[in-house]
Design goal:
- With 451 residues, the chain is α+β, with helices and mostly antiparallel strands.
- The protein folds into 3 domains: 100 residues, Rossmann fold (3-Layer(aba) Sandwich), CATH 3.40.50.20; 70 residues, Dna Ligase, domain 1 (2-Layer Sandwich), CATH 3.30.1490; 244 residues, 2-Layer Sandwich (D-amino Acid Aminotransferase, Chain A, domain 1).
- Strands 13-12-9-10-11-14-19-17 form an 8-stranded antiparallel beta sheet, with helices on both faces. A 5-stranded parallel beta sheet has the order 3-2-1-4-5.
- Helix 4 packs antiparallel against helix 5.
- The longest helix has 18 residues.
- The protein is globular and about 60 Å long.
- It starts with a strand and ends in a 7-residue tail after the last helix.
- The mean pLDDT is 97.
- The structure holds adenosine-5'-diphosphate.
Length: 451
């Protein structure tokens, strides 16, 4: 097993990884920007290294500084968390070239899955259904028109290297197609340095349902069921739940098996998520994430399995601690992503935390790096806490979530807690009756003057 892990991340996920390491008897190294000198991940780690100025590009994305930090502290593995360098194949390669273990899949698997066109082609080969669309890249209007005529409008133009919901253009009729292809490609070039785009059918009322998998180096692969992440704003997840209100056990186990078999055939190792759109009983693959995800705790709550611990174990060559038969699903879990933003206009709200009182009690988990007196810097993602609640049934979970949100005090900045309090009281949400567009419609119809 590793003796010392460098955590190449910040915020709640850096703490999450630190906690897993601690419980395994592994020492941790935090890295941080100048702005994060007083951050909680720095305080908790055994050692810390400042890797650069405030901007992420100069610090959390600074590969030479991170490698040097690992070398001077003698870390034998690097955990990338999510975001930042977690899906950078070149980074994984460089880490390994320096004789340090990368806690994640091989660079090759990151590369194949990081390009959505090759990811789609790969999983389709192993029997996973994909969204109908272009077989590969769309080079010009003529290509796009041909595919769109075949599959019918509306269509969506997407960036092959896209992420974070950026670089997508929905097209409802042929006269807007040329412009959309050009805009998406230009946006993709600016955001991802790769203007490659492809086209697929735009599903009008789907849910976003994703499956968690774990795979070790000995050919063992398990799935841990699904998460429903349909509550989204601008293609970004806001609240997630497991299991999905739309699936039954038979559908879960059947689809999970197809996925686990495909992952085994692909030879992927580590923790991964296979994302689908789900409409009228059918699954359509959209992408695979080759890292731990923000919403992983809801899966931990219903399975009792520590995903980060398993991730570290398999990177060290150890076998998974469970087989598919050992995985049992208990009750229901919901995660609310709490951002330092106005809850209804979503204007960022960085600043100093005056009072911090997280909720507690049975089956309530808060993953956050906040503390009273901490100043949230304006340079990074606005997510400051995740509230994760478990209950015996979905209804118990909802009642507990109401109570926990009421208890949560974060004073000094605006947060999205009031939005979550409203959302979970909506009849559609209570009925589990929502798709990926529901939240945007809901927000569009809110009367901001009478909240
Ligand atoms: P990213 O990597 O940027 O998150 P994804 O491919 O995972 O991009 O898509 C993000 C979200 O965009 C999905 O959860 C869904 O809401 C929407 N989306 C993507 N593809 C489609 C599609 N073919 N039809 C409808 N919505 C889509």
């Amino acid at each position: 097993m590793f003796e010392k892990v460098l955590i190449a991340n910040r915020g709640e996920i850096a703490l999450r990884i630190h906690r897993a390491c601690r419980e395994m008897g592994i020492k941790t190294v935090a890295v941080h920007s100048v702005a994060d000198a007083n951050a909680m991940h720095v305080k908790l780690a055994d050692e810390s290294v400042c890797i650069g100025p405030n901007a992420s590009a100069d610090s959390y994305l600074n590969i030479p500084a991170i490698i040097t930090a690992a070398q001077i502290t003698g870390a034998d593995a690097i955990h990338p968390g999510y975001g930042f360098l977690s899906e950078n194949a070149r980074f994984a390669e460089i880490v390994e070239e320096h004789g340090i273990a990368f806690i994640g899949p091989t660079a090759e698997h990151i590369r194949v899955m990081g390009d959505k066109i090759s990811a789609k082609a790969t999983v389709e080969k192993y029997g996973i259904p994909v969204v109908p669309g272009s077989k590969g890249e769309i080079r010009n209007y003529k290509d796009a028109k041909k595919v769109a005529d075949e599959i019918g409008f509306p269509v969506i133009v997407k960036a092959a290297s896209g992420g974070g919901g950026r670089g997508m253009q929905i097209v409802r009729s042929a006269d807007r197609l040329e412009e959309a292809v050009n805009t998406a490609s230009r946006e993709a070039e600016v955001s991802f340095g790769d203007g490659t785009v492809y086209l697929e059918k735009f599903l009008t009322l789907p849910r976003h349902i994703e499956f968690q998998i774990l795979a070790d180096k000995h050919g063992n692969v398990v799935h841990l069921g699904e998460r429903d992440c349909s509550l989204q704003r601008r293609h970004q997840k806001v609240l997630e739940e497991a299991p999905s209100p739309a699936l039954n056990s038979e559908m879960r186990m059947k689809t999970g098996k197809v996925i686990a078999d495909a992952i085994k055939a692909i030879g992927f190792v580590g923790a991964g998520t296979i994302e689908f759109l789900y409409e009228e009983g059918e699954f359509y693959f959209i992408e695979m994430n080759t890292r731990i995800q923000v919403e992983h705790p809801i899966t931990e709550m219903i399975t009792g399995i520590d995903l980060v611990r398993e991730q570290i174990r398999v990177a060290a060559g150890q076998p998974l601690t469970m087989s598919q038969e050992d995985i049992k699903f208990h009750g229901h879990a919901i995660e609310c992503r709490i951002n330092a933003e106005d809850p209804f206009t979503f204007m960022p709200s960085p600043g100093k935390i005056k009072t911090y009182h997280p909720p507690g009690g049975l089956d309530v988990r808060v993953d956050s790096a906040l503390y009273a007196g901490y100043s949230i810097p304006p340079y990074y993602d606005s997510m400051i806490a995740k509230l994760i609640v478990h209950g015996k049934s979905r209804n118990d979970c909802l009642m507990r979530l109401r109570r926990a949100l009421e208890e949560f005090v974060i004073d000094g900045v605006k947060t999205t807690i009031p939005l979550h309090e409203k959302l979970i009281r909506e009849p559609d949400f209570i009925d589990g009756n929502y798709d990926i567009h529901w939240l945007e419609h809901y927000l569009d119809n809110l009367d901001l003057d009478n909240l």
